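On clarity, I found the account of how folds are encoded harder to follow than it need be. For illustration, here is how one protein appears when written out as sequence plus C-alpha cells.
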Amino acid sequence: MYWILIGLIMLVSWLVSNRLKNKFEKYSKLHLQNGMSGAEIAEKMLADHGIRDVRVISTPGRLTDHYNPLDKTVNLSEAVYNQRNAAAAAVAAHECGHAVQHATAYSWLTMRSKLVPVVSVASNYVQWILIAGILLIKTFPSLLLIGIVVFAATTLFSIITLPVEYDASHRALAWLENKNMLTREEHAGAKDSLKWAARTYVVAAIGSIATLLYYVMIYMNRR
C-alpha cells in the first residue's frame, strides 16, 4: 500500500509540475500593458512597503527565484528579472511577499528560518541513517528511531512551508490588485500561476508525511 501511495504521489507531483511549467509558458506570453519588468515590479513592491534594505538581483537558471533572508536579497531568475509579462510579475511579487514577511516578523517564516540549519544538515544524512536503521532493525532499533526523528524535522519543515508560501502569494496578489499594477486578464494569469506553484508544495508535504508514516510503521512492527 505504501508503494502504491508513493507511486500516486509521484504521479501527481509530475502532473502538477508539468502543469506549472505549462502555466508559466502560457502567461509568459501575456505581456504587461504597464511595460514593467519583473525586477521593476519587485523594486516597486518593496518600496511601497517601506523596505529599503533589500536588493533585487538576477540569479542564473529557470524557476530559481527565491528570497534570501540572510543577505536580504530577492533573487529572480534571469527570465523573471528581465521579462515583462504576467508570469514574471507573479513570481517577482511573490518573492517580495517573503521579504515583507521577513520585515514584519511573520511567525511562520520565523519558525521556518529557525529550522533551516537543522534541515540543511539532516537532508545530507537522513536517508543513510534510515537505510542503516532498517538493515539493523533487529540488533539496533534505536538507529531507525533516530532516523525517524531527523526525518520528522524535514517533514515539519515542508508543512510549515505551506502557510509561508500561500501567505506570500496572498500578499503579492493583494498588492498587485490594490496598486492596479495589472489588467484584469494579467491579474488572473498571475493568480493562476501562483496557484499552481503553491500546489507543488502541497504535494511535497503530503509525500513527506506519507514517507514518515512508512518508517514509523516499520519501527512499530519491528518485532
Summary: Helices lie at 2-27, 38-48, 78-82, 86-103, 107-135, 141-178, 184-220.
